[in-house]
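Structure ticket #2291
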Amino acid sequence: MLRVINLMTAGFPGAGGTDRSGPLPAGPPAQVSEAVAAALGPARLSEDGLGAAGALRLVTGVLVDHGLNLTHPGALAHLQPAPLPVAVAADVFASLGNASLDTYDSGPSAVAVERWLIRLLTGLAGLTTRADGVLTPGGSLSNLMALLLARDAAAARRGIDVRRSGVASLPGPVVFCSELAHFSVHRACAVLGLGEDAVRPVPVDGAHRLRPEALAAMLRELPPENTPIAVVATAGTTDFGSVDPLPELAEITSEHGLWLHVDAAYGFGTLFSDRLSSRLRGIELADSITGDLHKLGWQPASASVLLLAEGSSFTPLHREVAYLNPADDTAAGFGGLLGQTLQTTRRPDAVKIATTLLALGRGGLGTMVEDCHDLARHAAGRVEDHPRLRLVGGGTLTTVVFRFQTVRIEHSDLVNSELRRRLSQTGGSLLGRTTARDEDGTERTCLKLTFLNPATTPDQVDEVLAEVLAAGAVVEAEMTEEIG
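Resolution: structure written out below.
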């Protein structure tokens, strides 16, 4: 089993390298899909299996030969790091135990590990001893649960038991968030019956941060028949890494008696760094916090956490089930974490996180965060200095957004889109992609670098930018010849 771990994490800092030329397998997506299907054989269940060794050899070979190599220095597309081998190893042992977090007798040590980890993380975030939390399968579910609890709290303030009477009894629900907030906020509102139209996007400033004065104005103008549910602040927008002004937003939500949720799925890991943690100043004032340690925490997905400033806020999720957590068992100390989640059976993701924190400490993880931040600053400087590249944003955390500048602006979107695809297939880099408004208000396609590999060197960053310039020139010339 450890041999499998070594194989899958090969190339991570300190673990050696791989010989693939780029992060993605060669060939177009359809060709890769066909190669995987061919290796696995006909899609029907055979009467006789391959045996454990044969099946593992086959599947791991498929994953390595045709998968994404996150250890490659050119893997810069998404908030998806190569996991630390120690975390992977701990995760394997957690799977061996197959514990569940819902009741004590389904996983006594696993329940205790998660409780220990939650105490550690609430302390890291600066919350009080009244805080509590739970691990979830991802940042989207953490945001969903936060808004669910905020919805129930807002309804309770109006004297409505929304769980019994339904969301139709809640007049005009509204959720405020930055116009750059993660799409999971909109999705959560749809799932919770609030409707995506409940989301009121608040404009951002030039640094891509929610404007507090705009939020205050929107709240003042909100008709009394509406029900404000929450303000969702973002601590690390996916593209720019921008952090909304948390202290100012906390002051506004306090004034209006509103729930403040901080989506720190990306930015939470900066709390490990002495140099960068001040960027999240004010996070301790939140009612709820989302943090994803499968981003700036280098955990295998998933490793998300929802922290609540008041553990009692979990009350709406409490359930007493005869076969799981009868009251007398709970009173005797046999209760689990069923009442803090939407799940029943839940795997012990806390094991890998706890092991990593014990192994590296805050200093070890903080150094990794700072190294990635320094790479982003280096890249931003290089982009800013080159006449064919235009810096659009980033550098706050570990991302940089920019674009290749075409001679004719009308070619910009097509050239930047095509050069990214071309580099992913024939070059040594996999870049991210997004859009951002230009000075004239036009939404334009941009490229994005996401640094989560602290072993990447500044020289390798320069090589990636040189690839972008070369590919951009070729694609632009081809496009000019083709469409004029």
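Closing remark: The first helix runs from residue 2 to 8.
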